[in-house]
Amino acid sequence: QVQLVESGGGLVQPGGSLRLSCEASEDISREAVAWYRQAPGKQRELVGTIFNNGLTNLVDSVKERFIISRYNSEQTIYLQMSTLKPEDTAVYYCTIPFTNTWGQGTQVTVSS
Question: Is the dihedral of CA 110, 62, 74, 95 positive or negative?
Answer without folding.
Answer: positive
